[in-house]
């Protein structure tokens, strides 16, 4: 009987505990930790800056909002600075929030293209194309990047 009463008290206390929800709706706990580095792949010389894809007009036709927009802006900034692994780490967080955002695939494909990982860059660009059907700017950038990747192979 003593244990049953203790159990009832614990259950009642657990039901009264406040629920903490992060601002912006981002998941908390272990899944909010920065992603691990992408698997290491053999790399050639990085691509020169002139061959890189940058957003035609950042955030012009984005469907998602808030946290994803902020993460995409950060990822593009790291991309422009040549910090491709850091850009991928940021954009992978956006991917966990909204896996249907085509700009995520554009950024990742651009990063891997810059790192001369052409197979992965091509795969990501092809994954993003069907998602970009409602976003003409991102679709055009993905198509342009895909043709650059294919012509480089």
What is the fold named in CATH at topology level of the domain at 65-153?
A: Serine Threonine Protein Phosphatase 5, Tetratricopeptide repeat
Q: Name the shape in a single word.
A: globular
Contiguous helical run count: 6
Number of distinct beta strands: 0
Question: How would you classify the quaternary structure?
Answer: single chain
Major sheet size, sense and barrel closure: none
CATH architecture of the domain at 65-153: Alpha Horseshoe
Average pLDDT, to the nearest integer? Answer: 74
Q: Distance between termini?
A: 74 Å
Decide which structural class fits the backbone.
Answer: mainly alpha
Low-confidence stretches: 2-50, 57-63
| CATH class assignment of the domain at 65-153 | Mainly Alpha
Q: For the record, what is the CATH homologous superfamily label of the domain at 65-153? A: Tetratricopeptide repeat domain
> What fraction strand?
under 5%
Order of helices and strands: HHHHHH
Radius of gyration: 21 Å
Helix content: 55-70%
């Amino acid at each position: 009987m003593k244990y049953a009463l203790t159990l009832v008290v614990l259950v009642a206390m657990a039901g009264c505990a406040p629920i903490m929800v992060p601002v912006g709706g981002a998941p908390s706990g272990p899944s909010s930790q920065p992603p691990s580095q992408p698997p290491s792949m053999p790399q050639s010389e990085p691509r020169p800056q002139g061959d890189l894809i940058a957003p035609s007009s950042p955030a012009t036709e984005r469907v998602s909002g808030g946290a994803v927009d902020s993460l995409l802006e950060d990822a593009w900034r790291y991309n422009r600075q040549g910090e491709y692994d850091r850009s991928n780490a940021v954009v992978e967080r956006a991917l966990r929030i909204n896996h249907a955002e085509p700009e995520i695939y554009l950024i990742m494909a651009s990063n891997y293209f810059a790192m001369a990982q052409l197979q992965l860059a091509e795969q990501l660009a092809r994954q993003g194309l069907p998602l970009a059907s409602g976003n003409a700017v991102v679709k055009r950038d993905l198509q342009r990047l895909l043709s650059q990747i294919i012509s480089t192979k």
